[in-house]
């Protein structure tokens, strides 16, 4: 099961968790006015916002790196990645550490909500919104009661060049 430490807002997946128990489970979070979700399989842990060391010559949405228990992790601001206006970080701002094709990356989100189960029959393909750049990150739509949750494809959040940069930062550990 997931562990939660209140004083540091750390949530992480333990070795006891397996793929079957996490199937169709999603971590929900807010960015701007929308609720998004990532498959829990990709989530390594959730931490509160902390000091970010800026690194020159990175895309604007890659804010820099953090030191997470001795590991240097690149972090990106999801607001900026989605072309939303920047916002000052606050006590509810979190960094969701995810695995993007073998590379740990921190995603800065406005707030984390909960882990929910969205059965496959309540998941739908995204509409064709080719005009919108952010639509390429949307893997599907989750239908939950009266709301729709946008399901993100964690592997598409970084462009190939950005993924190489993040991988080289992670390899420096």
From TrEMBL:
Record PROSITE patterns: CHEW
> GO CC annotation: what is one?
cytosol
Where do the coiled-coil regions begin and end? none
> Per its UniProt record, what SUPFAM superfamilies does this chain match?
CheW-like
One Pfam family of this protein, by short name? Answer: CheW
Could you tell me which SMART domains the record lists for this protein? CheW (SM00260)
One GO term under biological process is: signal transduction
Q: Where is the CheW-like domain?
A: 23-163
**Protein name in UniProt:** Chemotaxis protein CheW
Organism listed in the record: Candidatus Wallbacteria bacterium HGW-Wallbacteria-1
